[in-house]
Amino acid sequence: MLQHTISDLVVHKLIKDQHGPASVELRAGTMPVTASAQRLIDYLCHYYAERLGKGYGKFEDDEDNFPMPRFIRQHVIEQSIDFATLAQLMVQHLQVRAEQEQLASGGFVLFARVHNGAADCLMVALITEVVGTAITNGLDIVDSLHLDMGNLRVAGRVDLTAWQHGAERYISFLKGRGEVANYFKLFLGCNDVVIALKETQKLVQGLGQFAERQQLPPEVRDQLLQRAHGYLDELGGEGQPLSIDAVARQVWPEAPERLEAALNDESLALSTGFVPDRRAIKPLVRFKANAPQWKLEFDRSSLRSGAVIYDKHADTLVLSNVPEHLKKALLEG
């Protein structure tokens, strides 16, 4: 498992039962990065990256109601507050948002500034405890409390590097149950408005990358892309939002979990719940290209049928079955 560089780490406690009031228990100052803390953060970052169903966005502009960008700017840019103060301000704002959501529940709130390669990120996770079983040195069986990482439902990440470079989206969060995900999104100050055209283009890109990485035979690749086009065109025509798991089942029923994992890859940052833009799905079934002296567009299936032949050795493209009107126009050239 990849080891991350942890520059700052704080854990506070959010105290709240569902349908009840919220309060916080604050730690005084940051904590040392021990071997146990390192293992926890490495596991958290790995688990978060692997989790499916994330939302993506950027900070809201209204910093009075969504103060997170102001807190982070004070720490990262202005350096007027330290990380301990940042974490305290954040957990106090989380308390306010948790009060507004009846279904929110408490737990340990972990704040970590983590470096992973070139990315400088702020991780926030709400982790609950679960009762397990342990065996003592005297070989007795006892109850043992431990952090329930396997059921992590509330977590988010701000890519501070992308934020400072003006990226379009730099916040991600676990979508989980709608109500809980929404209150945590509000806590992060995340505007996750989805632009369907751009998301559809990313989906098309992800499908193409999957077909390439699977090294599918041309005819199998064409079938996959044709199925994707048909399904997305149907959703777009009916105005129905898509889910990535449904796309995977429809498009690659042979192994939907592999396609779902590819489309949920964090590098693609693909949202879910948008209505496919039918303009953006044409590349799934059609080639379109141009050069200074020509433009060309044809179905991918033409390469299989022989209507279009590409000779890579001669660097030529041959079109067959030229229609009469085009012949006439060419002869009159």
Automatic annotation (TrEMBL):
It is found in: Cytoplasm. One of its GO terms (cellular component) is cytoplasm. Signal peptide: none annotated. The keyword Cytoplasm applies. Keywords: Cytoplasm. InterPro entries: Nucleoid_associated_NdpA. PANTHER family: NUCLEOID-ASSOCIATED PROTEIN YEJK, PTHR38772. Belongs to the YejK family. This is Nucleoid-associated protein.
